């Protein structure tokens, strides 16, 4: 083998090409290229390899090889012709047309190039006309939007048209050259019309999307202050548009694609490090900008949260270094009650968003030194505030501490454990000052997050909270109520643990309910009432009463629909408890017996938490419109809240008849980002919910358009050993339906490594998993990429042959269908079937089956094999398969007409081998 010449390798490549084995041909041409001695030989090898690339539809590789060949042999007609084919497939008709003209000039008698030239000429003309038309459109829209005295309706229509044009490549280039950035930038400063204003901001964002040079130009022309000025307003739509624009800028500079699981490209981050760092610094400093509106501040914090994680831009350590933690804590300590000249404007969601941001930053402190720096920054903030003995400083520290306890809990616990901190909070709670009572109560509630923290608080804080509950101020009463609810529910779902006297939980729930359903109470009161219920609904009796209380349920759902970040956790937790979607500890029977023997406490489940009761609660909630509330809340950046939302949606999707409601209310759309980003358990819950939807509802309806492709990764994430057999099975069923949608979806499954994952379940002993996996492969078999995998080395094809004789009839039918589909597309695969030791037994099992469907698949497989090559046909004829085909061809049994026809076709193929072209005659490529 080592003595072969370049010419010998090239001839082997030609033989493989004629046999349709493109992968082998590529390998042989590459060997020949490595040994080629002169430019002429190298050019020939490159041209032939390009032909193989074209067959594999790898047009970029074909283009590269043709260009390399033309550098060695300028003007070569074959290299030009193949490059022309590649360029046309890549959507570059102008360049393809140029090459086609050169081919015709070099070889005027070439018949194949003439129709190609005509087709390309039409494409070039159409592109030129489209470009001219786009230019006219842009000029017309510019006149309407930026010209003086235009009709308002025309301006709005034209402005929206500019946004559409900016999304098109030709339109974006024309608009950028015509100076739309400067014009839009100036117009935004004075524009009063909301539609025109938003369109101008969105145009700037669209020009930046995915185009680095334009993004740099936009930043240079407008400057970062322009973006912050646009962001800084009190209109939610304008703030959202500006926030989206800034995120698009960051995505382009870093190479992220804007998808939940999108990751930046290291080389781009290094190349644009200065610009990215400037953006981070500006955002961090803007968090405490006293001139910013509350909505703008929220948007800035959300932008930081979205990009601070290590899978995004990994801003965490840099943010700590530039004092970002202190600024976020300053925001956390802000109170609407303290109104003074330099006070920051905040919204009801600001402190919640800041807590989530702090948690995300701490999550990225991977090593001890980084966590110590984080803690040191927090300590420095607390000490600085407490240096001053005034009440305001104590109040601000307590409020900031509450945010830490709701965010990075470990840090909050560490600070509250410091000497004198908890004592200070309890003293504040015992004063007559309403503000001190309020903030102290909130801090006590946040501190009682774990059982080990709740026990001392029950001892020391319960009496304080009971006293505060007697307050005449509803704001104090409702907070004290929540504190009591939290302490009273510290036993969790264990029905045998009751921290307070029997009946107390029900009374507390009724008190929360009065605050929740009372229309006279403001949203803040209802928010606290829901938080109280989020603890109390661990009690099964409270669950049943709440589900039977329609006004309370409607109030709960309406509160969730607001999407207010400060209510998300409370509403989501309450819903998780109602549908029993929380994490349950599985106790093995032997462990229970051991615990009894050791006289350890064993948790008891309430009879009202039996599956029938849970199913009923899920149904009631779904019919009350809970999905719409969950969709609104799913926009939160909190991983824990996202997990809770995914758990509830999955619980609803567990009921087959409710899946249509979930899709109808936008649940499938909301589940996609939840399945791609968040906690491991949250992603798994969302993925399982998507699988359940994909099983019951047509994927093209449940996941329209691009979503059919995007749902592939979440479903494949369930095909792992750490997932349950049910999760595996549901994912396989959904993938089976999905793989039947389109070639694009099948290619995505292959690209995401789905073939090997599905195949691993085809070897499973579990009959249902093996059947489902084989059915997925049947639908994937139509994909050319899968055909190439089965043509390659390995025993994939042999195992399919083995499954054709499986005891389970449905698995057998699926395997036969997959093999028949593969054999129809590949002569090589037909040869591989005969390499399996059991091929004849499997064919017998199919051809002699009493089931018409199974027999039809078997005959179709044999017919494809007969047509594939003379060698394969001879091997089939040498067995009793010929006699079976003869018998089937004359079969007149009703329902087996297709079997009979296919058997006749297989026999005709066997009879007609004299008409088969010699090797290479059936190929239109002229190899050298």
Question: Would you kindly provide a written description of the structure presented here, covering whatever features stand out?
Answer:
The chain is mostly helical and 928 residues long. Among the domains are: 6-110, Tetratricopeptide repeat domain (Serine Threonine Protein Phosphatase 5, Tetratricopeptide repeat), CATH 1.25.40.10; 799-928, Leucine-rich Repeat Variant (Alpha Horseshoe), CATH 1.25.10. The protein is globular. The two termini are 22 Å apart. The model is unreliable at 492-501 and 914-924 (pLDDT under 50).
Outline:
With 928 residues, the protein is an all-alpha fold.
List keywords for this structure.
globular, mainly alpha, 928 residues
- Ends apart, CA distance between termini: 22 Å
What is the strand content?
A: under 5%
Model regions low in confidence, pLDDT < 50 over at least 5 residues: 492-501, 914-924
Name the shape in a single word.
Answer: globular
Using the 3D structure, state the CATH architecture of the domain at 799-928. Answer: Alpha Horseshoe
Structural class: mainly alpha
Mean pLDDT across the residues is 85
Total beta-strand segments: 0
Estimated radius of gyration: 34 Å
CATH superfamily of the domain at 799-928: Leucine-rich Repeat Variant
CATH topology of the domain at 799-928: Leucine-rich Repeat Variant
Largest sheet: none
- The total count of helices amounts to 56
The level 1 CATH classification of the domain at 799-928 is Mainly Alpha
Estimate the helix proportion, in percent: over 70%
């Amino acid at each position: 083998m080592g003595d072969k010449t370049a010419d010998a390798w090239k001839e082997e490549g030609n033989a493989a090409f004629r046999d349709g084995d493109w992968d082998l041909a590529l390998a042989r041409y590459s060997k020949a290229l490595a040994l080629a001695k002169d430019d002429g030989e190298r050019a020939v090898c490159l041209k032939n390899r390009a032909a193989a690339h074209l067959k594999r539809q790898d047009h970029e590789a074909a283009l590269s090889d043709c260009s390399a060949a033309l550098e060695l042999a300028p003007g070569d007609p074959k290299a030009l012709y193949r490059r022309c084919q590649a360029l046309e497939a890549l959507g570059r008709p102008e360049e393809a047309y140029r090459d086609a003209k050169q081919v015709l000039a070099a070889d005027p008698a070439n018949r194949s190039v003439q129709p190609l030239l005509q087709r390309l000429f039409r494409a070039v003309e159409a592109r030129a006309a489209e470009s001219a038309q786009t230019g006219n459109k842009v000029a017309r829209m510019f006149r309407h939007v930026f010209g003086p005295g235009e009709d308002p309706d025309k301006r709005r229509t034209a402005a929206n048209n500019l946004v559409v044009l900016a999304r098109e490549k030709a339109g974006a280039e024309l608009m950028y050259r015509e100076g739309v950035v400067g014009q839009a930038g100036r117009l935004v400063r004075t524009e009063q019309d909301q539609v025109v204003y938003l369109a101008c901001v969105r145009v700037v964002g669209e020009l930046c999307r995915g185009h680095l040079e334009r993004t740099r130009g936009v930043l240079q022309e407008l400057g970062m202050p322009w973006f912050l000025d646009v962001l800084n307003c009190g209109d939610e739509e304008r703030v959202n548009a500006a926030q989206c624009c800034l995120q698009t800028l960051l995505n382009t500079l870093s190479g992220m694609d804007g998808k939940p699981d999108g990751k930046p490209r290291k080389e781009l981050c290094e190349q644009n490090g200065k610009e990215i760092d400037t953006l981070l610094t500006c955002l961090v400093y803007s968090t405490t900008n006293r001139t910013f509106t509350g909505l703008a501040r929220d948007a800035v914090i959300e932008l930081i949260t979205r990009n601070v994680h290590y899978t995004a831009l990994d801003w965490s350590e840099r943010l700590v270094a530039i004092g970002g933690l202190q600024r976020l804590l300053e925001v956390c300590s802000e109170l609407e009650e303290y109104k003074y000249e330099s006070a920051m404007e905040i919204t009801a969601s600001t402190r919640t968003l800041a807590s989530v941001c702090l948690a995300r930053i701490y999550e990225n402190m991977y090593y001890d030194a980084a966590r110590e720096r984080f803690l040191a920054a927090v300590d420095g903030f607390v000490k600085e505030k407490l240096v001053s003995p005034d009440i305001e400083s104590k109040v601000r520290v307590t409020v900031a501490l509450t945010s830490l306890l709701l965010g990075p809990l470990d840090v909050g616990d560490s600070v509250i454990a410091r000497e004198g901190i908890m004592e200070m909070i309890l003293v504040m709670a015992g004063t007559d000052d309403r503000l001190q009572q309020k903030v102290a109560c909130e801090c006590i509630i946040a501190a009682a997050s774990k059982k080990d923290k709740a026990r001392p608080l029950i001892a020391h804080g319960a009496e304080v909270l009971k006293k505060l509950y007697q307050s005449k101020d509803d704001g104090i009463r409702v907070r004290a109520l929540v504190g009591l609810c939290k302490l009273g529910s510290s036993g969790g779902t264990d029905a045998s643990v009751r921290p307070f006297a029997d009946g107390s939980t029900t009374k507390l729930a009724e008190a929360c309910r009065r605050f929740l359903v009372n229309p006279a109470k403001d949203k803040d009161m209802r928010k606290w009432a829901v938080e109280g219920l989020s603890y109390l609904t661990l009690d099964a009796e409270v669950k049943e009463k709440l589900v039977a209380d329609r006004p309370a349920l409607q109030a709960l759902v309406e509160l969730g629909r607001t999407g207010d970040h400060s209510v998300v956790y409370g509403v989501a937790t309450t819903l998780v408890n109602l549908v029993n979607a929380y994490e349950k500890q599985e106790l093995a029977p032997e462990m229970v017996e051991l615990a009894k023997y050791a006289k350890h406490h064993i948790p008891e489940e309430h009879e009202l938490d039996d599956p029938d009761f849970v199913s009923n609660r899920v149904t009631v909630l779904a019919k009350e419109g809970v999905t719409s509330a969950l969709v609104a809340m799913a926009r939160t950046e909190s991983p824990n809240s996202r997990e809770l939302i995914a758990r509830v949606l999955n619980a609803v999707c567990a009921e087959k008849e409710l899946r249509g409601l979930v899709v109808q209310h936008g649940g499938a759309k909301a589940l996609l980002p939840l399945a791609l980003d968040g906690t491991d358990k949250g992603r798994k819950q969302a993925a399982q919910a998507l699988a359940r939807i994909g099983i019951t509802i047509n994927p093209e309806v449940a996941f329209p358009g691009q979503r059919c492709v995007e749902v592939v990764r979440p479903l494949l994430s369930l095909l792992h050993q750490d997932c349950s057999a049910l999760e595996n099975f549901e994912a396989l069923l959904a993938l089976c339906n999905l793989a039947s949608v389109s070639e694009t979806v099948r290619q995505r499954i292959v690209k995401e490594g789905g073939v090997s994952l599905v195949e691993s379940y085809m070897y499973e002993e579990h009959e249902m998993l093996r059947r489902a996996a084989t059915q997925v492969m049947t639908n994937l078999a139509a994909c050319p990429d899968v055909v190439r995998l089965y043509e390659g080395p390995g025993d994939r094809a042999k195992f399919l042959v083995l499954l054709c004789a499986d005891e389970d009839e449905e698995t057998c039918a699926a395997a036969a269908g997959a093999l028949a589909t593969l054999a129809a597309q590949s002569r090589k695969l037909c040869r591989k079937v005969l390499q399996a030791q059991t091929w004849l037994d499997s064919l017998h099992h199919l051809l002699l089956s009493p089931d018409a469907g199974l027999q039809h698949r078997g005959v179709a497989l044999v017919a494809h094999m007969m047509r594939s090559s003379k060698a394969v046909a001879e091997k089939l004829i040498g067995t009793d398969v010929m006699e079976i085909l003869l018998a089937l061809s004359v079969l007149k049994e009703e329902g087996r007409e297709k079997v009979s026809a296919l058997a006749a076709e297989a026999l005709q193929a066997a009879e007609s081998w004299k008409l088969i072209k010699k090797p290479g005659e059936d190929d239109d490529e002229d190899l050298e």
